[in-house]
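SAMPLE LOG
Freezer: B-3
Tube label: C17
Construct: single chain, 436 aa
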Amino acid sequence: MTSNWSTATRIPVTRQRAAIVAMALAIMALIMSFATESLQAQTLTLRHAFNGSPDGSSPWAAPIQDSQGNFYGTTWAGGTLGFGTIYELDSTGKVTTLHNFAGRKDGSNPWAGLTMDAAGNLYGTTYSGGGPYCFNNYGCGVVFKLAHGTQGWKETILYAFKGNSDGANPGYGALAFDTAGNLYGTTIYGGTGYCSNGCGIVFKLTRTSGIWHEQVLHTFTALSQTDGATPRGGVVLDAAGNVYGTTSIGGNSSCGCGTIYKLDATGAETILYSFQGGADGAEPFASLVRDKLGNLYGTTLFGGNSLNYGTVFELDANGTETLLHIFAGYPTDGGYPYAPLVRDGAGNLYGTTYIGGNSSGGGFCETNNQPQGCGTVFRVAANGQETVLYNFSYFVTGAETTAGVIFDAKGQALYGATAVGGPSTNHGGVLFKLGK
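STRUCTURE (predicted):
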């Protein structure tokens, strides 16, 4: 199998520019209960501005936090070798590079964020690397573990994808653990489906006698009709071991605008919802959030109305979709929500948009010489009322976030990242804090 960067994702013009900039530079989500008012009228504080080398650039996923207040995340590009990094932001605000990806046998270019186990080990995926497959033998991506020992942090490759039936190119979704310590995730391509590069898979990694083995739980088979294709987000699990996720295309609509699916413990698939591409939204990219009643929450990148800026939705346990918000874009609202949501105990949903907001970006964040905004942080209340909590500005606080936000351990602030922009010389994106 071969993969083509130009077909890796369907994205707006500014996202394409961001990817080009990143390549040119050498390219837990915690659900907390806190009052709606706690993030009203709060300012955004920069925790770090990425410069490319040696600290990395283009963090495309939100960080996670450990019990000591340290944050961990990935950058798509930069570092000493240009293939991306794993970083730590400690409680004092110092950023340390824990690992520089090297490509080839190592991973390269991590899109997704990290997952942490009880011992503090970090797990994640890279889009490429792991060779000798895909991308002219640069590899179809890997699953990795980063463990802290007496000699510092050490990376172990748990699995390298080969691009055939085992999948290729993990996307935006962080890995998920089950109660037995098995890992679950998705690949955008690979498998044996009826797509030119394969329609993607859902996989499970199980450790036996110290070795991790892959099991393909589901191979997506079609661009339309009875199944979805190209799952770009990760998965969530319920207590019974059922797996839930989204595909960005496919389904039984005429447009093939994506699905929400469920896999039971045996891997049997049920399509819970097929997007129709209109008011209900189109092409979900992100992972889902699931509440205790079994309701699912997520975003679509497109659809909603003729503006096509995307939606926030709820899918109840009966498979009924409720549209919570339709994005309106610049200058009053955000647009193109790539990232997963987080939900507080009151049922409010928080997320980010790739464009939109009221900033013109100083000549950036434009399409066809028209301003479209540098992105937002938003809140959607349980009743569907949206509030824009922050508008990004390219040279000041960054722009074009594909990362979502997480709550800090106290539930008093949101942390996240922007993919580009910020005050550093190379404008490689920022880590930010919104709140107290």
